Amino acid sequence: MYTKLRSFTSALIIGAAMATSAGAQSIDYNDAKWVAMSDREFAETYAEMAFSSDLRDREIVAWLLFARANQLIKDSQGVSGTGRVPEWMAWATDSATFQKNPSFVFNKTNRADIQRVTDKKVLAGIVSKADPDGANEEVTRNAISYDYLTREARLNTYDGVLSYIKAGNSVNMPVGTIEIKASWMEVPEGGSAPEGALTFKFESGTYWWRGIHIMAKMKPLPRGADLFYSEEPSWFWTTFNFNNNDGASHVKDSLITQRAPLTKAEISSILKMGGILDFGFEAYGPMGTQIGYTANADGKTPVILGHTDMEDFAGAPNTAQPQYWTSFQSSCHTCHATAAINPATGEYFPFSVPKGQLTPSYNAPAGDVTAYLGLGYVPLDFMWPIVFHAAKPKKTQTDKKE
Predict the structure, then answer these.
(1) What is the tens place of the pLDDT at every residue in 2-27?
(2) In Å, how far are 47, 89, 108, 179 from 138, measured between CA atoms?
(3) Structural contact between residues 150 and 106, judged by C-beta atoms closer than 8 angstroms
């Protein structure tokens, strides 16, 4: 049985409003247990709710994850102007994780600057240089994820990944893993951020926060299932957008497939119980949620989820104007499912933009017969960061001559 949040009290305290399905006990929110839980305990407690067919249940889990990741800690670098910053800004970045001898310490000390990752448009071959709109993205992860990647499975280098897979091991990120991608926009000199947007002064400039992806491992991978095609969920996906981003409302209302917006009072209740009300998080909201390839695992209706900035390349007709999009081909679960390596060739599966249910013949780029999923690729548990950063070493000129 799983817990279901049905209603909120008029006093904006959730309390025991977390009613359960018939016969189960309720969870009392007054003691804020969901805030104090470890990441693993939270995942185990809320997995059934996260994978509920009730989209409202899933929207609540999205907000709980958002509130947990944004627990406020001391601003050690003076970047916020408030003396506090979200906790995920002190988590391990990709650059701190994927190196030969990683030594990151989770001491709740935030960074003085953002740590950029390569834009998806570049990875997909859509543009050949840095994002022309000046966007910056960074990836951070919690201690559970970092420890597994760098110590338990040692997947922080290409040689480590290949050795691990060739030894017959499967990548299975631990329950409680949290991976986050944030989107930033630099404020030009003499300019200003949109009203209500959270703004931070980093060493490289002043940036406003455009939103955040959250992927959370809620259950172990299904045993015996082919992870490229199974609809049995293990990861929970949500993405939060700045509510006043150009076109955000249009995309949410007309192109995102699985969402059930909470009321302002309900959102305030969660933020208040999480201890982060009135910091500015009210200006952000989830685009929706996703747990599999297709709606209700019907194998026919692709689930669409994405951020208007981080996945703008998937919008049409004009990627730069989401308010006019009539199509949005973004699917977090499907895209991440193709994160894979072929142990026979040592090649990673190329980044692409799929949606809906995958097939063994799926390949990218089109026409490249070496890229078929059915040609010996092994899944990396939806972890594109492994592919991007535990990268295959590039051949030098000397290597090429040999």
Answers:
(1) 444 444 323 333 433 343 332 223 34
(2) 27, 10, 17, 11
(3) no
Q: Are strands 327-328 and 284-290 parallel, antiparallel or unpaired?
A: unpaired
> Residue-wise over 221-249: b if at least 16 C-beta within 10 A, else e?
beeeeebbebbebbbbbbbbbbbebbbbb
Query: Which pTM was predicted?
Result: 0.90
Cβ atoms of 304 and 355 within 8 Å: the answer is: yes
Q: Give the separation between CA 142 and CA 112, rounded to whole angstroms.
A: 19
Q: In 3D, which of 111, 106, 117 has the Cα closest to residue 80? A: 111
Calpha distance 13→5 (Å, rounded): 12
CB under 8 Å, gap of 24 or more: what pairs does 195-199 form? 195/244, 196/242, 196/243, 196/244, 196/280, 196/283, 197/242, 197/244, 197/280, 197/283, 198/279, 198/280, 198/281, 198/283, 199/81
Contact between 240 and 282 (Cβ < 8 Å): no
The 10s digit of each residue's pLDDT in 274-310 is 999 999 999 999 999 999 999 999 999 999 999 999 9
Containing 335, the helix (H) or strand (E) segment is helix 332-337
- Counting DSSP H helices and E strands in the chain, the numbers are 12, 16
